[in-house]
Queue: 3 jobs
Job 1
Amino acid sequence: MNAKNTDFGTFAQDVMLGLNSTPKTLPSKYFYDAKGDKLFQQIMALPEYYLTRKEYEVLEGQHKQILTEIIALDKPFNLVELGAGDGMKTKILLRYLTEMNVEFTYYPVDFSGSVLEELEESLATEFPALNVNPIQDTYRDSLKKQVWENGKPNLILFLGANLGNFGMDEAKNIIDHLRVGTKKGDLVLLGFDLKKNPQIILNAYHDKQGVTREFNMNLLDRINSELDADFDRDSFTHWPTYDPVSGECRSYLVSQKSQVVTIGALNQSFEFEAFESIFTEISKKYSLSEISHLASLGGFEVKENFMDSEGYFADVLWVKK
C-alpha cells in the first residue's frame, strides 16, 4: 500500500505560491482530505450533480462493449485507474472482468491516501481474489513512473470527467503524459462531461443544499488547522461561473470585505481587498470534436464514444496508434 498523508511541506508551499499569485489561487487537489472525501461523496449523490448518475448509466449499460477490445487480446493486462476515488463505477467493470475469468492487475491511483485505504478494504471484501496494487500519486507523476509497466497491455481509466478539472493547456499536458506512458495498442477510457444547457451545468456546482460550498470552504478549514491560519470562512462566499464558449465552469471563494489573513506556518500575512477572489477549481465541458482533437494530440484515435441516453456524458475509448 503506497498511501501516505499529504506532505506538509508541499501543502504549505502550494498555499504560499497560490496566495502570492495574481489572481490568488488554491489547488483543488487539496479539497480531498478525509472530510473533503466524504463531502465529495455527498456531492455525487446530489440531484443537481448529474455527472455521476449519467456515467453510471453508461458503464452499467455498455460495460460489455467497452471491455470487448481488451478482453479480445486474450492475455493478462494492467487496469490502471487515474483518480480512482471510491471505485464504485469501476467495480462495474471489475465485476464483469471477474465473471469472465479475465487475468489482470488493478492499479488504482489517487492523491488521497484515505480514499485508497477505504478502496483497498472494500475490494478485499467484494473481490477477494483480485490482484490490487494501490498507488498514491498525482496523475502525471504516476504516468511518468509507470510502476505498472511490465510488458503487458494497458487499459488506463480516467473516469468521472477528471480531465475536465484542468484547463485546456494542462489537459493537453496530461494527454502528452498519457502518450509517453502508453505503447501502441494500449487503450484509454476517458470520461467527459459534454457541453449542454448552461443552466444544467451551473446548477451542478451551485447546489441548493450548499454541499459544494462546504466542499470549497473545507479548503480554508484545512489551511487553518494544518497551517495555523486564521481564515474567517464566514467572510468568504462560494461563487461558481460557467462560460458556454470555453466550456469552463470555474469556482471561486470571494472575500466579502477588506481583510488580512495570517498563516502561521508560512510566517506570512495575505491582504484581501473587498470582493477579491481565490480561484479554486475548474471543470471543463467538452464537445465531441474537442475530444477527437485531444486524442490526436496524444497519438490516439477515438475507437468509440459511449454516451448516456440524453447525451450529457461520454466515456470515450481511445487506442494508441
Note: The domain at 50-194+286-320 is CATH 3.40.50.150 (Rossmann fold).
Job 2
Amino acid sequence: MLEKLYHYRAKVVSVYDGDTCRVDIDLGLSTWIKQEVIRLFRINAPEVRGEEREAGLRARDYLRELILNKDILLQTIKDRKGKYGRYLGEIWLEIDGQWQNVNDMMVQAGHAVYKDY
C-alpha cells in the first residue's frame, strides 16, 4: 500500500464543505499545481445544501477554521479519484510540532463519519 501513496506540501486555498477543499500543491523544483480539488479520503461530511444544510455549514466552518490558508501535508492515493473526478487525500496539519490527521479530526469532532470506498 505504501507504494501507492504520494506526499506533497500544499496550501489550502478554499474549503467548499466538510470533506472537499482546493489546494495549491508543491510538486518540487518550483512546479505547482494550482486550485486542485481534493476530497477527504475515508470520511463523509453532511452536505451544505438540502436537508443537511445546518450540519453541513457547521462542518464546513470547522474545516475552514482548521486548514484554510494553512500549509499542510497532502497524502494522495495513487491514481485514485472519486466519482466526481476529485483526487482522494488525507490532510495532515502540524499542530504544536505534531502532525495531526485532519480527516480523523473531522470525525472526532462529530462533523463527519468514516466511509468505506
Note: The helical segments are 53-67, 102-108.
Job 3
Amino acid sequence: HLVWRNPKVPQGTATKSEYSGGRLADSVRVGTVQYMLRRVHSFEEFIKFVEYFVDVVATYNGDFVVFPELFTLQLLSIENREMPPAEAIEALTEYTPRFREAMRELALRHNINIIGGSHPTRVPNGRVENISYVFLRDGRIYEQAKIHPTPNEVSWWNIEGGETVSAIETDCGPIGVLVCYDSEFPELVRHLTDQGIHILFVPFCTDERQSYLRVRYCCHARAVENQIYVVMSGNVGNLPNVSNMDIQYAQSCVLTPCDFPFSRDGIAADTTPNVETVAIADLRPDTLVTARNNGTVRNLRDRRHDLYGVVWRGK
C-alpha cells in the first residue's frame, strides 16, 4: 500500500502543544540591527539611539528586532575617560535595572519583541555574567546568559559563564538566543532545537574579520544541521575611551538552511560590512517543517539516535 505524508505536518508522536508551545506564525518578520558604537553623554541619549532602530523595524511591521552583544558598553563613554577594567564593569552593571525597564517599555510601546543584545550583569551569587535579555511585547522579560565567555572576556572583565540554555516561548513560536561564541558549540543549538525552536538569534561582538567569520561560518553550519533560521547582529564603530572596545567588525545577516525552498546561498538578508544599518527578512516556520520532513536532506530526521545524542547535564 502507499502512504502519503503531508510534508507540512511534523512527524512523530509529539502533541501539538509539545511541538509548538504557542502560536506557529505563517510568517515572522525579523530585523537585525548593525549598530554603531559611538560616544553618548547620558543614559537617555543611549536609549534614544536604541529607540530609533526599534521604531524603524516596528514601522516595517517587524515581530522581532535584535541588537548586538555588549552594545551597552557604549554607556561607559558617558564618563569620557578610560576606566580600569574592574571599575568599568562594575559601573556598567549598575545600569542593569534602568536598562531592563527602558527596554521593556520600548517593547510595549512599539509592540515588538526585542532581543536586547547582551549586557554584563551581576547575578545574585555575586558573579558577573554576559546576559542577553529578551523583552517580549506582552511585557515579559527573559534572560539567556552566555555559557562560554571568551578568554578575552575572562581576562579583561572576569565574566563567568551561565549554566542554563532554554527555548523562549513567544507569540511567534519558540525561539532561542545564544551569545556570540556560544554559537560555535553545536551541542547548545541542538539542545535548543530539540526544545522546538525555529529561529535562533545570535548577538555578537567581534573586533576583526577573522573573529567575525568564525561566528558566521558556525552560525550557518547550525542553520544547516538543525534546519533552523539564524539571525546575527553585530557592532560597528569604536569606543576610544572604553577598554577592550577599540575596533569592531560586523556583517549582520539572516541565515537559512541550504535547500530549494530557501533563499539563494542560504542567506535571507545581508548587510554591507561595517556600516550602521538594518536588514529585514520574512521567515516562514512552515517551510522549515517542509524541509525537515521532505527536503533534499533531512538532518534532524536522519540522526542515528542509536549511536549518539546530546545529553544536557545542566539545569
Note: Helices lie at 16-20, 43-59, 85-93, 96-110, 151-157, 186-194, 209-226, 285-294.
